[in-house]
Amino acid sequence: MNLNQITVPTTDIESSLGFYQTLGLKLIVKSAEYARFECPDGESTFSIHVVDKTPNGNGVMVYFECEDLDATVADLKQKGIRFYQEPTDQSWLWREARLYDPANNHLILYYAGKNRKNPPWRIN
Question: What is the value of pTM for the model shown?
Fold first, then answer.
């Protein structure tokens, strides 16, 4: 089994389209209520769909892996993307920066290297 795509809700497709294109995703499908993007690395896709109301509370959390996290964050900040957490080394051995998309979905840009799938506490 392989993860194909993640879809997150939005109430404003146009602002979400611009946001995700600024992040570097390539738009490949677009309608009035749905859009799908290719991720710049790998084979995964990411999509947004229009809903009447986005979920309350923590909602969706999506992780995008970046080879050079600090440079990626600096570049996105220059393009006007705001982060609520700067790149930070976490106790689970990932380096993460956190932000919200226009629909308040949580996005985490991170780098984990070998610890992504093989942390020291991995169950064999």
Answer: 0.91
